[in-house]
Fold this protein.
Amino acid sequence: MHPAIQLRLAAFIVALVMVFAAIVWTAHTSWQRFGALRERLNSVQSESFRIAEHFQNSVLELNNLLLNFEVDRQPETLKEFRKQYNALNDWIDNQKQLCSSSREKELLDQLDRSYDVYLGVATNLETSASSPRTPDRALAEYRSVKTQTDHLLSLGIELANAHRNTLTAYINDSNVSLRHLRTVLLVALTALLLLSCGLAAVTYRDLIAPLRVKLVESHALLERQEKLASLGMLAAGVAHEIRNPLTAIKARLFTQLKVLKPGTPEQIDAEVIGHEINRLERIVKDVLLFARPSEPEFVIVPAAEPLRQIEALMAKQLQEANIRLVVEERPGASIRIDMQQLKQVLINLVQNAADSIGQNGTITLRTRTENVRRSERMQPVVVLEITDTGKGISPEVEKRLFDPFFTTKDAGTGLGLPIAARIVEKHGGSLSYQTQVGHGTTFGIVLPRVEAA
């Protein structure tokens, strides 16, 4: 697998793991917050009622002790009053430390001050009880105690209400937190879904789709090779059978030409027959070359060397049609080739380019280097390009460009490109092309790049 694909897949997998971990963490945190909220709600709710009940009962019990003392004048009763008063005072001080809101602290401060006033009123009642009092005075003192008692009880109720308000505020804050957690979960799940879709898309695009294309191409190539192999065997047999009678016909024609007088109709017919026999021999030769191509004898040469030889061989011939043959070479690249076989390929491609131009044009031969993916890895290659300014290749011709015996030329065999493709394949390369109707064609011979000997 290509490192870039591995990196993308690894990044997607890491992102998926991180999103999944975030979802698990969020769910765990939410569960903990739900539990804490439930405990807090129960605690605060019960605390509100407990505060009101405890404070109310304590104040009423203090009032009962004062009434009992007024009746029995027992020091133990007064001592118990002092004891319960101090206990309630400590409870108020303890509530100041436990309260969480400013309103509760304010009410507890008021409660503490009012409780001190209540103690003063109760102390006056205790002092006056040891001396004779008029009924009006006693009634007034008890009214003072009742007034302070009612005030304390009302503050206790307000404190309980303050606790409930704190509870409500806490619930509201918790609801906001829960909404945030829900949003985080939804975003995380959406991100998980998108990342899963992205992972599936990348997997399909970078792994499955190329494999499918490669499978289709391999299947098509296998079918084409099977057809070519069958065609090659048939063509070799037919060519072999044709060659023997052609040799006999050519020998008898050579004998007849010796006895025919020049310029006679018979002699002219014999020459036409001879030309056609030569054409048949060339076709048979091409068929045999296509069916049984000879094994290349490799040598390492500079990439531009075969282009220079083709220029020296064909430049003057092309000048007759006013076609320039230009060589653009880049030094430093070497290739491993059979020089004669590769020259045969180049001659065929240059001649096809010239036929496409007709008159007045340019054929450019150039070399370039690049890296291409071959056999699941990058490989340095050299590309020998043949570019013409001809009329290009029509889509109809493109479909059958490399089919054996398909040709658009009157005297062509349709074996030039198939033979060229097989020779290049024997060299471990490939033959490619780019064309645009009305603008020309570029054929590329892609060969492995080697180190110079």
Summary: The chain has a mean pLDDT of 77.
